[in-house]
Amino acid sequence: MTGTHVGCDTSQCGACVVHVDGRAVKACTMFAAEAEGSEVVTIEGMAGSDGTLSVLQQAFQDHHGLQCGFCTPGMVMSAAALLAENPTPSEAEVRDYLEGNICRCTGYHNIVKAILAASGQDVSAIAAQ
């Protein structure tokens, strides 16, 4: 698997977020042996078995929630955890939840928009910031 990225090795950037037993975890803070017996889902596990993008991945594409793509796997995994906890978060809740994920390209606006769209919310009223 090559989708999960090591960005900082200090748990600051969020590029390495994976799901361990359904919980979002920054993989750089965990030894592989700690995951033994656990279900680990990486970004590769988000798409359908036929390669079809998940609703969240498609929303990132549709709303231009990525540029260089380095942070995207961690952003998608964090966003999936948020939507599992809170299926219709507010814009402020999305921004707060992504506090541990750093993107150096997008300024977060389209990432937030993509997450809100994936939750089924109307994003047409969200102004560019």
UniProtKB/TrEMBL annotation:
A Pfam family assignment: Fer2_2
InterPro entries the UniProt entry points to: 2Fe-2S-bd, 2Fe-2S-bd_dom_sf, 2Fe-2S_ferredoxin-like_sf, Beta-grasp_dom_sf, Diverse_Oxidoreductases
Enzyme Commission number(s) of this protein: 1.2.7.4
Keywords: 2Fe-2S, Iron, Iron-sulfur, Metal-binding, Oxidoreductase
Residue ranges of every copy of the [2Fe-2S]-binding domain listed in the record: 42-115
GO molecular function: 2 iron, 2 sulfur cluster binding; anaerobic carbon-monoxide dehydrogenase activity; metal ion binding
Enzyme superclass (EC): oxidoreductase
Name of this chain's protein: Carbon monoxide dehydrogenase small chain
Species this chain originates from: Roseovarius litorisediminis
